[in-house]
Amino acid sequence: MTNQKLADLAVRIWSAIVAEVEIQSEKEPVLTSFYHSSILNHSSLGSALGFHIASKLSTGTVPGMLIQQVFTEAIEDNPVIINSIYHDLEAYYRRDPACDQYSMPFLYFKGFHALQAYRIGHWLWQKERYDLALFLQNRISTIFDVDIHPAAKLGWGIMIDHATGVVIGETAVIGNDVSLLHSVTLGGCGSAEGARHPKIAEGVLISAGAKLLGNISIGEGAKITAGSLVLEDVAAHTTVAGVPAKITGRPVDDQPALNMNQQIIDS
Question: Which DSSP letter does residue 241 get?
């Protein structure tokens, strides 16, 4: 995506969020102060999101203001973070039929919150600020029930739907435009050091409860159906199901993550 298209996406989404919550504030006066503190008092999505997530992750010894400062520092240092956030919001809006406003994942979806907090933790990890990165990982796991190691590498346009019980290990890699549902595990296999977690290519759909273990590769546009146990590589544009997972066919679309069709056999 060109810089101009990214800029247009950013303006469109932030403008939509502000417009949505202005209407919501009139409809539900009880939440007026919540809408103002979370969105309307801020001039940018980065500022608003930093405040909103920090308020959830703060503790008595690490106040939200300090976490918000780290969030601001990260997105100013690495523009990829804020670009990824916009793509993630777009992913929720386009793929989740329960999401008809951009403000919904921003305000209420813990999968989105966990993913954006992970992005700050990953930035800290890259800066060798390991202790603070691990602190954030612990808080994300405690508050959102999503455990993503800060060393894992995640692309953009990712949707983690419902999110409860998601685990993503240290050496896992997830490409752009991937969709995961609740209780998905990208786990290790064995106690050896080095690469030991799955590598997920672009456009992959990983359905609820699927367990992918070991240093395996999931090819572009593959589909892992609900409850599957995947211990071996999966070729691109292949559907697998079962325990252990076996090939059942080929997804109808090249990127099943986008249409969220979770049928075992596509028609």
Answer: E
pTM score of the predicted model: 0.96
Q: Which of 54, 57, 64 is nearest to 142 (CA)?
A: 57
Which amino acid does the sequence have at 243?
V
Neighbours of 54 (CB within 10 A): 22
220: its two tokens? 């572009």
Mean pLDDT for 80-86 is 96
Name every residue whose Cβ is closer than 8 Å to that of residue 37 and which is 6 or more positions away in sequence: 51
Closest C-alpha to 194, from 217, 172, 171: 171
Q: Which residues pair with 199 in a beta bridge?
A: 173, 217
The 3-state DSSP class for residue 178 equals coil
189 three-state secondary structure: coil
Confidence check: pLDDT of 191 > 80: no
How is residue 30 annotated by DSSP? Answer: G
The type of residue at 147 is D
Q: Give the three-state DSSP class for 149.
A: coil
Q: pLDDT averaged over the chain?
A: 96
Residue 267 scores a pLDDT above 90: no
Report the distance separating Cα 87 and Cα 93, nearest Å. Answer: 10
- Residue 245's pLDDT band, with cuts at 50, 70 and 90, is very high
Distance CA 168, CA 91 (A): 19
